[in-house]
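Query form — protein ABC transporter domain-containing protein

QUESTION: What is the three-dimensional structure of this chain?
INPUT:
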Amino acid sequence: EPCEVDFDDPYLKLDFPSATTLPPPCISVNNVAFGYEEGKTLYRNCDFGLDCESRVAIVGPNGAGKSTFLRLLTGEIQPTEGHVGRHAKLMVAKFTQHHIEMMNPEKSSVNHMRDLTQEGVSVEEARKYLGRFGLSGDLALNPIKFLSGGQKSRLAFAELAWRSPHILLLDEPTNHLDLETIEALAMALNHFDGGVVFVSHDERLIEMVADELWVVNKGSDGAPGTVKVWHSSYEEYKERLQKEFATSGLVTNGTVKGVK
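ANSWER: The structure tokens for ABC transporter domain-containing protein are given below.
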């Protein structure tokens, strides 16, 4: 059940401003295959489209390639077969835990924001975006090393917001967030006037935000895996997993090991 969130609390007001809308498709995935090693294809026959109204959760077992699929969408890696097309004016912003780990711990949040461009973001603009994510006062001025994990995530969200993306790509965004902040994040994503694609094991975020599930399935016996649209509810997806794994010893106390 939803927890009660006081959205008058400035710490729980998360706000992603939107870029101008682009006509669909913003990203098109056409007959794509990918593998890190020759002869070892992670998945193939991937066909998808994303636009400024997309709300997609990418789910599947650990190690199946969910984060890799986000990297294909951004162009960080290239498919071994097929093509990923992007609108010429598309702006994408991506959240990862690795990005948080790479932040300079000695910098303040304000200076981190100011250094996003060579010309320098103004102090006023930096504070404005930090304030959208509950980082104001001393929190914005203290070195990043003194921030909690959740506060560092807020700083990363503020950076995403500053980039004014058409599509947000989020890789496990709820790590280190408390329950109230997860719900505040879900509300902010629902109000965001752009596309959202996220990898998450957090059932609450999936159920509150996603209207489409992409399931990444591992390959077996030398055959590549797949990425498929799940044409039913998340609840039914979980029920299918329970049935599939019940006979293989991968279910303990009603919980599927390694899959959420």
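ADDITIONAL NOTE: The chain has a mean pLDDT of 90.
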